[in-house]
Amino acid sequence: MDAERQRFLARHPRSCALAQQAAGHFLFGVPLHWMRDWPTPATLFVRAARGAELTCADGHVLADFCLGDTGAMFGHSPPAVAQALAEQAARGLTSMLPDERAAEVGALLAQRFGLPCWQLAMTASDANRFVLRWARAATGRPQVLVFDGCYHGAVDDTLVDRDPATGATLRRPSVLGAVHDHPAFTRVAPFNDLAALERALVDRQVAALLAEPALTNFGLVPPQDGFWAEAQALCRRHGTLLVLDETHTLSSGVGGWARTHGVTPDVWVAGKAVAGGVPCAVYGFTEEVAQRLRAVKEAAPEGHSGIGTTLTANALALAALHAALTHLHTEATYAAMQQAADALQAGLEAALRRRGRPWTVTRLGARMELQFMPTTPRNADDVRRHLQPRLEQSLHLFMLNRGVLLTPFHGMLLCSPATSAAHVERLLQAFDDWLAALV
Ligand code: PMP
Question: Which InterPro entries match (predicted)?
């Protein structure tokens, strides 16, 4: 790590200078504090990003497998989105009225994601917060259920862990300025555990189960065969709305995991890449849920609903969403992503075998996770038992110094339609060098 830190500093004099300047006026030297949570000794500044490549302030070109932690899953600045944005930019940015493309966008959302009725938000965090509000209003129930190891954004209700001894809800100790009573309103169940799920639902106090189809934010934990069919049946039996947050699992295939696996949730959420990386999130629901939402809204007094923000569904976001739904959420795009991911997975697994490392590559469509454990985990506790943050940081810094960008905090690798065989080859070479360098 010491050698790699020195190497980074020597290779990035301009980023180091910018970091020093930015420290004068930004808290922690960055516009968002978590931009310092990379394992680099100084912040890496970006000059440009295009397709699957990112050029840093020192002019090094990186093969990007982080892709803005999924925001740029379809590649940086996809041409169709960039063009739509440029055209719209001269015709108004925001008006608090729907752009005339809105009707067509609604039809495209229904077509791509399979649910009839939609609302927009700016971010996936916002969408999840609004969905929980709608769900509590529609059901009249106070509780929310999530899976241990979840992440659904900056949403108080979901910033919780499960006490492994008692199963009780714990507020994450890292949450700042908390006044929300997390244990009073959120329940946490282990993933892939139908008995625990039923125990959480049986008293009929849970408005919504908010879940990713596979956990992607604490390692990658796929659902076991048949899990979701049973889980959905349990939700129905106990009157709980099933909300699938597909912000990351959109990498599964066109329309996301639910569409490709024939599951129709009550509510479906996606953000990040849904509009090609422009701030925009969507949530859709069944006609039955739509009727319930209309009824609660019509019964409520006039005034602030607590749902929505002023810039939500602005003209730029709608232009980007329209272009993304038309040109990015397509079979051709996903075929290119899968092809790159196939080569990457095969190469990683071959390197692990060659170097005798008993580690696992877990795959979900265009994304995969390198896990320092012998088999794919079943739940968050499996992941916790095998965490090796220092090893992970060493991998990330080593790769970055060799022109490959990985997602910080975990071993996620994502392929965009612009990810080429040469990008994959560069990653595999650097990975093999890292394996060879391990003691
Ligand atoms: N849902 C999921 C599944 C996520 O992974 C994330 C972010 N990692 C979010 C929601 C929140 O997205 P955002 O930070 O864009 O609001």
Answer: Aminotrans_3, PyrdxlP-dep_Trfase, PyrdxlP-dep_Trfase_major, PyrdxlP-dep_Trfase_small
On whether residue 436 sits in a domain, the answer given is no
Q: Which ipTM was obtained for this model? A: 0.99
* Residue 397 in domain: no
**In whole angstroms, what is the distance from residue 316 CA to residue 85 CA?**
6
Cα torsion angle, 52, 416, 419, 16, sign: positive
From the CB of 187, is ligand 1 less than 6 Å away? Answer: no
Read out DSSP for 228-278?
HHHHHHHHHHTTPEEEEE-TTGGGGSTTHHHHHTT---SEEEE-GGGGTTS
The answer to whether residues 296 and 133 touch, using CB atoms and an 8 Å cutoff, is no
> What total number of domains does the chain contain?
1
Distance 110 CA to ligand 1 centre (A): 22
DSSP 190-235: -TT-HHHHHHHHTTS-EEEEEE-SSB-SSS-BPPPTTHHHHHHHHH
The parent domain of residue 184 ranges over: 79-327
- For residue 41, CA distances in Å to 3, 424, 433 come to 11, 26, 21
Question: What is the pTM for the complete model shown?
Answer: 0.98
What is the distance, to the nearest Å, from the Cα of residue 186 to the centroid of all Cα atoms in its chain?
21
Q: Is 251 in the pocket of ligand 1 (CB under 6 A)?
A: no
55: confidence class by pLDDT, cuts 50, 70, 90: very high
The CATH number that applies at residue 217 is 3.40.640.10
Does the CB atom of residue 245 touch ligand 1 within 6 A? yes
Judged against a pLDDT cut of 90, whether residue 327 lies above it is answered with yes
Is 175 inside any structural domain?
Answer: yes
Which residues are bridge partners to 118 per DSSP? 284
Does any domain span residue 266? yes
Residue 32 sits at the vertex; the CA angle it makes with 26 and 35, to the nearest 5 degrees, is: 105
Closest CA to 376 of 161, 216, 261: 216
